[in-house]
Write a structure and sequence with these properties.
Layout (H helix, E strand, L loop, with lengths): L1 E5 L9 H15 L3 E7 L6 E3 L6 E4 L1 E3 L7 E3 L2 H11 L3 E4 L4 H12 L4 E4 L4 H4 L9 H18 L3 E4 L2 H9 L6 E3 L15 H7 L7 E5 L8 H8 L9 E5 L5 H10 L6 E5 L6 H7 L2 E4 L8 H8 L4 E4 L4 H4 L6 E4 L4 H13 L1 H15 L4 H14 L5 H5 L1
Parallel strand pairs: 1-2, 1-7, 2-4, 7-8, 8-9, 9-10, 11-12, 11-14, 12-13, 14-15, 15-16
Antiparallel strand pairs: 3-4, 5-6
Length: 392
Amino acid sequence: MRIAIAADFAGPWVGGPATFIDNFRAYLHGAGHQVEVIAPSLTGLPSVEETSAGPVRRVPSLPVPFGYNLRAAYRPDAVRAALKAARADVLQVHHPFPLGVSALRAARSLSIPVVAVNHTIPECSLYGVKENRVLYPFALGLFRRYLIWFLDQATKVCTPTETAARLLRAMAFRGAVTVISNGIDSTRFTPATDQRAARAGLGLPDKPILLYTGRLDAEKDMGTWLKAAARIPRSLDVHLVVGGEGADRPRLERLAGELGLAGQTTFPGYLPREDLPRLYQAATAYCITSAVELQSITTLEAVASGLPVIAARAGALPELVEDGVNGFLAAPGDVVGFARGMTRVLEDADTSGRMGIAGRKRAERHALSVVGLAHERLLASVIGRRVATLEA
């Protein structure tokens, strides 16, 4: 197959959709397909990047005045030209934003079938106006209707979790929804064999480590994370690692200081790709306080790395974390509840180890070899092909 992937948020932007795209196009390339990605330019000017997994066509873009290092494609004609140049049999589109809309419309005009993979939750996209009691309900209703309109244009729709599918149905989406995980490279993210060496290699202290890594934006509710961490008994001598970048990082660094955590907290930013598995291997436990996750690839990475996870009982996180089995769940914003879960996994090595083993088994269901094949078959189905025939 010749496959085009259109994404408003593609690497080097860091986030779940970008990680999925990188993993999936590598899988498709390995399966013998030709794959081209269409994404916003990093500089504003059009370009074509040649990569080992296929070209990335960068279309003209403008900076977005909110979010973290976001850019928006603003020329539908350029998106159409990129899609036409890709000579795609099928388009996979990931976001209902400018590039995604332009690509979907272009595909329809060129008679190219479209598979829409929905990573968008209106409550997350509109988190910045959540406290505006007048604007927020109106904007939320409008965004929900817009998202359903967008997905209605696709040939088939896919979401990463049952939770995401239920949310679409609750928004009155009447089409069929295929549930396929974003997946995890379970050969790359594995439990630690030498935790001390992993810590030394990253310049981290050799002591219990509580980890978060990902975007540091308001919707991740990292204020709750830090306030809960401040309640961990000092006798546990835990070190905190808040990885990633985002618009909220300066506020979080100030808050860590105000809570008396500055001396025991590392903000390493985004690590090079090759160092990321080692960061999980250096940790004792992982915690995510966000209430608006449609899956959370970072949580998948943590589970695959054999870490117990303390997570919000919200969104799709309970699909990855079963309370008392491979971690603990707490209500969104419940500082005391998160602190209790953090303390339990840090002070009880036997429980922590048992939960890590259970989590690793759970992660194997999301292995890229399984997930990639499911996505590949979905793409093939809209053009009347069988993957089994392609593999023969």
